[in-house]
Design goal:
It is an enzyme of class 2 (transferase). The chain is an alpha/beta fold and about 725 residues long. A hairpin with a 2-residue loop joins strand 9 and strand 10. The longest helix is centred in the last third of the chain and has 21 residues. The chain is globular, with a radius of gyration of 29 Å.
Length: about 725
């Protein structure tokens, strides 16, 4: 066996390819077998995930896999007996360099799905226990490994099966003259990034690549060269500091080798002379626009489009980079959604795609196996297969996941659509979609092809004995976001006893957007859930104006907002409900009342920087909860402020009532509201509800100071007075 492995490694090295070798059988046999094979390798050049590592091989737990991004190892051992962490499996595969091998230790393939997996605890929801989690995902994976042309099998009591390797490619690529870039394509990417700075303003670059193409490295190399040639400040942003570390690693490497000055490198910052490359979180940038020579947005696919749009509008010189196939996010969905914004805001933007792999050759067997097993290359139906689809022509189905897992084309269509519709999708989402015990999957089929899909989770019906500890924050049960939040955050203890269905994803095929399919699916789901005795439908998402409008138009009402913006999205989370039963209606009414009581107190504190358009939308239709009738004395106060010289603070109670009345009826009054009325609502919201400072408001309005802002407020109050008094 060892001689065969040596021959195999020689052939992989000649091709600069990598391979997955599945060692399948009893646990002790798997460990003995892989340890025997490791004697053919340099053990200190390997990495082991999970339990059972020999002393000579560095070992980590699966949760640390992402920290190894950008590093190289001759081999990796993934011990699935310790649990098959699907995210770690995808991440750590990128550590194996060309000519290397990845070993997967697994139970007997046709029995694997029947065994309890430690990873089940991540999928288990109350009141189920771990043995209720199905093995659909592992069953699919085992079948794929058994039939794959891209991995070799070493199975207990069976002859090894060695798959044919791709033909030998004798062509080699050279580095660019600087010595930093690994391929000509990467060198072209570096020059394109630099051109964003040296060329015309407002011509952003969108750089895309599959994993392992040196995209982040290109950002770092270009940043270093730009500092050397005169730039002072480059800001890097992305979904997290960890996801951008390769940018800083390569920037520091380039600057550190410079003959006349060494750069200093700390986590999230490279300082060179008096210049720097520095990380900033997206929400920090959106809330406080930064002045920089260049902004680099790495892994842009993992950020929501509204946030990317804000960055695009703020920065005149900006580069967006994105992984096309990868656990970091899907660049395909990013490209579809973001392209429209680029065309509208910066029509002379440029796209560049890096195809050449750096650490391994094209047609790499391990890469192809990872793509298929994790469905990183999942695609929805072709456009022409669903074009013209209308709700009336589509069949509404609830998928039986036991049957669905045997229909690989439909699994691919469903997951491909879910990936396109959401900015942050991980391989674990596929396992959760197939195995989650409380998950329901629905779809709209048009001539056998998927035009839309809904993913939902059953929640609530929590035992009454847990009502008080959940309400008091002493206990949390897994998998019940909305009922627990309504109990603990909204202060409605009985909420945990009602039965709800939380919508996790709504996805419509891009070819039939704007055809009303999303709203139709929600209507059909509501009818189905009502028939099954659910009390409400709910959803929770990062709030943007567009998303809030969609859910409001579908009959959902806000019941809670998060008090801090998510660092990666820059959005506040928002929870919304639609009542389906009498009990659900009573719950919704109480939750709404408490929501608006809290919202009015939170706006000047936790929600001070919430977008004013979002604030306005939250008050749509909220007359019963957030406004009071204006008395004759209130109208006198309003007139005396708008037409006289009374103090703002003296008239504030009446102005507040007027503003709330304007916000509540803004939908009904939209036809009579002019642009100036809309602006008046915005300015007054910032000052009256969010209590922005006079200086902030002056800066926002482009005014000299408090005196001019006060005059602006008098004008705004006068406009609302005219619009609402009659």
């Amino acid at each position: 066996m060892k001689d065969l492995l040596k021959q195999r490694l020689n052939r992989l090295a000649q091709r600069n390819h990598r391979e997955l070798m599945v060692i399948s059988g009893e646990q002790e046999w798997c460990l003995r077998t892989v340890n025997a094979l490791l004697s053919c390798l340099h053990e200190e050049h390997g990495l082991w995930l999970g339990e059972g590592a020999p002393d000579a091989v560095p070992a980590i737990q699966a949760g640390k896999a992402s920290s190894w991004l950008g590093r190289e190892r001759q081999f990796v051992v993934f011990n699935a007996w310790s649990g098959f962490d699907v995210d770690a499996f995808g991440a750590i595969s990128g550590v194996v360099k060309g000519g290397g091998v990845m070993f997967l230790l697994a139970p007997v393939l046709d029995q694997w799905s029947l065994l309890e997996d430690p990873e089940h605890r991540r999928i288990t929801v109350y009141p189920e226990n771990e043995n209720r989690v199905t093995g659909r995902y592992i069953q699919r994976l085992a079948k794929l490994l058994d039939k794959s042309e891209h991995c070799s099998l070493i199975q207990q009591n069976k002859e090894p099966v060695w798959q044919a390797l791709p033909s030998l490619n004798i062509e080699t690529e050279t580095r660019d003259d600087s010595g930093y870039c690994q391929t000509p394509e990467q060198a072209l990417a570096v020059e394109a990034i630099k051109k964003v700075v040296t060329g015309h303003r407002r011509r952003p670059l969108v750089l895309t690549a599959d994993r392992g193409r040196g995209k982040s490295a290109a950002l770092g190399i270009a940043a270093a060269q730009l500092l050397i040639h005169g730039l002072s400040r480059i800001v890097v942003t992305g979904p997290s500091l960890a996801s951008t570390e390769q940018v800083f690693h390569h920037a520091a490497g380039c600057l550190g080798s410079d003959s006349f000055s060494r750069g200093t490198f700390s986590r999230g910052k490279v300082q060179w002379q008096d210049k720097s490359v520095q990380f900033m979180a997206p929400d920090e940038i959106v809330g406080n626009p930064v002045d920089c020579d260049l902004m680099l947005v790495d892994e842009a696919a993992a950020l929501p489009v509204p946030l990317l749009e804000s960055l695009l509008r703020q920065q005149s010189r900006i580069v967006f980079s994105s992984t096309i196939h990868g656990y970091e996010g899907t660049g395909r969905g990013f490209a579809i959604r973001f392209r429209k914004k680029l065309d509208a805001i910066t029509p002379q933007w440029r796209a560049l795609h890096i195809k050449q792999a750096i650490r391994w050759a094209d047609h790499d067997p391990l890469e192809q196996l990872i793509f298929s097993s994790l469905l990183l290359d999942a695609r929805p139906a072709e456009d022409h297969q669903v074009e013209g689809a209308t709700s009336e022509q589509c069949e509404w189905v609830r998928f039986d996941r036991d049957q669905l897992m045997h229909d690989e084309p439909m699994v691919t269509q469903v997951f491909g659509l879910l990936v396109l519709a959401h900015y942050r999708t991980r391989p674990f989402d596929l396992r959760h979609f197939l195995d989650g015990p409380n998950i329901e999957v629905y779809g709209l089929l048009y001539q056998g092809h998927l035009a839309g899909t809904v993913l939902a989770a059953r929640e609530g019906a929590i035992d009454a004995s847990l009502q008080e500890p959940v309400w008091l924050g002493q206990r949390r049960v897994r998998g019940h976001l909305i009922p627990q939040s309504l109990s603990n955050h909204a202060g409605i203890p009985e909420a945990i006893r009602q039965k709800g269905l939380r919508i996790l994803r709504v996805a419509v095929h891009p070819a039939v957007h704007r055809n009303g399919l999303g709203a139709d699916m929600l209507n059909r789901l509501a009818q189905s859930a009502r028939d099954k005795g659910f009390d409400y439908l709910g959803t929770s998402f990062g709030a943007t104006s567009g998303l809030l409008s969609f859910w409001q138009n579908s009959g959902y009402l806000p019941v809670r907002t998060g008090l801090q913006r998510e660092a990666a999205s820059g959005c506040y989370s928002l929870m919304m409900l639609q009542a389906l039963s009498k009990a659900g209606s009573e719950l919704l009414a109480e939750a709404r009342s408490r929501f608006y009581d809290n919202l009015l107190l939170q706006l000047p504190e936790s929600l001070k920087v919430m977008d004013t358009e979002l604030v306005r939308q939250l008050f749509n239709g909220a007359g019963d909860y957030s406004s009071a009738e204006l008395s004759e004395r209130d109208w006198q106060d309003i007139a005396s402020f708008s037409h006289g010289q009374r103090l703002f603070e003296s008239c504030l109670p009446a102005i507040r009532k007027l503003l709330l009345k304007g916000l509540v009826c803004s939908d009904r009054c939209s036809n009579s509201y002019s642009n100036s009325h809309e602006q008046a609502l915005q300015v007054l919201t910032m000052k009256v509800l969010q209590q922005q400072s006079w200086s902030s408001l002056a800066q926002y309005e482009g005014l000299a100071g408090k005196k001019q802002v006060l005059a602006r407020l008098r004008s705004c109050v006068g406009q609302l007075e005219t619009a609402l008094k009659h």
